[in-house]
Amino acid sequence: MDLLPWRDAWQHALYGAGGFYRGDGGPARHFITSTHEPLGATFAEGVLALADREGATHVVDVGAGRGELVTALHRLRPGLRLTAVDVVARPPGLPADVAWLVSPGGADLPDALRDLHDVLVVAHEWLDVVPCTVAEVGRDGALRTVLVDPATGTESLSDPLAGPDLAWCAQHWCLEGPAAGTRVEVGLTRDRAWAGLLSRVRSGTALAVDYGHTRATRPATGTLVGYRDGTTVPPVPDGTCDLTAHVAVDSLEQDERTTQREALLGLGLTASTPPLGLARTDPPAYLTGLARASAVTALTARRGLGDFHWVLRRIPDPRTRPGA
């Protein structure tokens, strides 16, 4: 069998010809995120509130799936400039004034995504599917690259980790005394992908929303997992399932990090239910209010979507900097 480093097999499985993210139906066919209905419209409210707070006049959605978030944003604020980025061609039915850019996939971004001004860039569950090196401590105590058979998921340990990946682990992980079998998903490619996205922004704010961990909470067994048809499955890089691993959120360049729960509540979203009297005077409005309250509850739930990390990096307008 032909074994590849996990990072290479992962890249091809998701973004190669016939890769998972190029399949019919997109991610929403296999799993629901905060950007998908029935939560998407309420999540979009939070994004708009953040855009307003940050003074953004343009919202860019990186890893846009089939345009669910930008469609919800357009519905709420038709005049807002919107751009979506994903690996597939423009989806049918996307509002005509929403721009669509085709990305190569993974950490790579389209050349046309650059010189962004007064922008809010949203990378929602993008970094967790940027492939990274997977490493494991061998019986000899050395941290070694994990190889995988793309057809079966069978793994083997290879050479000791070296170079920038090892340097990342020295800074952001524990290299002293981990037991054999301890694994780490090396966050260097995610850090570089995030830095590459930030380099496209001339002024504005970038937001990464993802599940993740910090140095103190990195799982000893790793987090790599597959998803298919709404169910977790073994991570086999054969193109038939999503492959995702939690993000080392503390290693990303950032100005602010909080939870989705704290962020959305701080932006004014509340789970308060509509007054019961509205059920008699305006039943449709009452049901809409109940649905929105339910969505806020789900988006801010502990041990659920509310625990997602919001990582923000602000790029000030060079024209407003002292001495400019």
UniProtKB/TrEMBL annotation:
Protein name, UniProt field: SAM-dependent MidA family methyltransferase
Organism: Phycicoccus duodecadis
UniProtKB keywords: Methyltransferase, Transferase
One of the GO biological process terms: methylation
Annotated InterPro entries: NDUFAF7, NDUFAF7_sf, SAM-dependent_MTases_sf
Any one Gene Ontology molecular-function term assigned to this protein's record: methyltransferase activity
